[in-house]
Amino acid sequence: MPDAPTHLARLDRPWPFTGRQAERAAIARTLAGGRGALITGDPGSGKSRLLDEVLTGADDGSRLVLRATATYGWHEVPFGAFGHLVAEPAAHPTDLLTEAMRRIETLAQGRPVLVGVDDLNWLDDTSTALLQRMSTETGLRVVATVRTGDLGRSPSRRCAATAAWTAWTSRRSARTGSPTSSAPPSATPPTG
Questions:
Q1: Smallest Cα–Cα separation from 167: which of 78, 51, 35, 74?
Q2: N or C: which end of the chain has fewer CB within 10 A?
Q3: 36 beta partners
Q4: SS3 of residue 161 by DSSP
Q5: Distances 23 to 17, 123, 179 between C-alpha atoms, Å
Q6: pLDDT by position in tens, the chain (length 192)
Q7: Dihedral sign for Cα atoms in the order 120, 125, 129, 132
Q8: Nearest one of 129, 61, 52, 67 to 98, comparing CA atoms
């Protein structure tokens, strides 16, 4: 079979990332200050791509960088977003939580941990508990995305992720974007 033309090899590369330097810089400053960030925006506004760029920029070897995507289909499954961290089923959810924490700590090898969560509003309760516990006990930082308005709209299923984010925000996080704006996601300095 003949080799594929070289111009086709470029199709697997992502589009160039442009026009978001201010948002990336604001999130980087927030993370450097020991806080997390929330990227808000309308569907299709580039939240996930901004998250990917932030995580790629942060992955310099000085910290463990993990990424998870929360989905509606897995929002009721324990560790739906982080199931790959749990090797075998355990008798009790606390055992799963402890195992997942141990796995992350082993992977981190003493380095700080940064977790990116796409679609935070669909994060399952046990994954939320994992991030809450690790942020409290180890200083884990979270950068998350959520559609404009979805974090504030909290059907009972979304309460855990909303409560978690509220706790992270009050202690060590900065919110980026404007929940009422239809503009692309942006980074703003923390308030309060």
A1: 35
A2: N
A3: 173
A4: helix
A5: 12, 24, 15
A6: 556 555 555 556 667 777 788 999 999 998 888 888 999 899 989 999 999 999 999 999 999 999 999 988 888 888 888 887 776 666 666 778 888 898 899 999 999 999 999 999 888 888 888 898 888 888 899 999 998 877 655 444 455 555 555 555 544 434 444 333 333 444 433 333
A7: positive
A8: 129
